[in-house]
Amino acid sequence: MTTATLSPGVGPLLREWRQRAGVSQLELALRADSSARHISFIETGKSRPSQEMVLRLAEHLDVPMRERNALLVAAGHAPYYPESSLDSPGLDVLRLGIDRLLTGYEPFPALVVDGTYQVWAANSGIGMLMADVAPWLLEPPMNAMRITLHPEGLAPRILNFREWRGHLLDQMRRQLALLRSRPLRELYEEVSGYPLPPGGEERAGESSRLALPMVIRHDGRRLSFLSTIATFNTPVDVTVSELAMETFLPADPETAAYLRQAG
Question: Which Pfam families does UniProt cross-reference here (predicted)?
Answer without folding.
Answer: HTH_3, MLTR_LBD
